[in-house]
Amino acid sequence: MSLDDAIRFTxxxxxxxxIQQSLEHLSGAKELRVLFxxxxxxxxxxxIGIQTLWxxxxxxxxxxxxxxxxxxxxxxxxxxxxxxxxxxLCLAHLVPSVRLxxxxxxxxxxxxxxxxxxxxxxxxxxxxxxxxxxxxxxxRFSVYPVSEALxxxxxxxxxxxxxxxxxxxxxxxxxxxxxxxxxxxAGLGVALVFHGANAVLFGFNRxxxxxxxxxxxxxxxxxxxxxx
Length: 228
Prior knowledge:
This protein has 228 residues and is an all-alpha fold. Helix content is 75%, strand content 0%.
């Protein structure tokens, strides 16, 4: 994947993520519509590919206003990842050389990779995750499961222990996917399934598109490394 393609695909997937998030707020309070209606309009322009530099700058400013409005990332990691991707897109359009663009997208790719690794590292150091108890508590007590029927999974400790370790090992080993193109494609496929499962089981739909917005950077970085 060329650098230009990686930048454009990143813009497209990020636009889809922001469109989804913005639509959820259009029926809310007026003060939220003031933020998310312009975000929706700019995201459509980004999707189409019109004035991408100025659109990205506008989206970044709105993202900062949203952070101020909610006194931080109200969607946790998805908001922070969105700001990171937007910031890197702005830099990629502003820097004066292709070499600097490469540094920017390499940084985005490494941050994305580390986000998975750090998540796995935090989990595996937690005895509740290693025993499967953390997931049992999620299904039994939290408000996250989208269906009450899913709460019965809390009574299947062996299944949740297996899922816990599968998630931790996937996140910890994710950096190894850069070893080859097939392993990276397989890793990204598993990551998509992981985010899709989170959306279906827990309603974490805002994570579904934000992380894939950074996948083109990973695909480009591996191509760039192998070309050396």
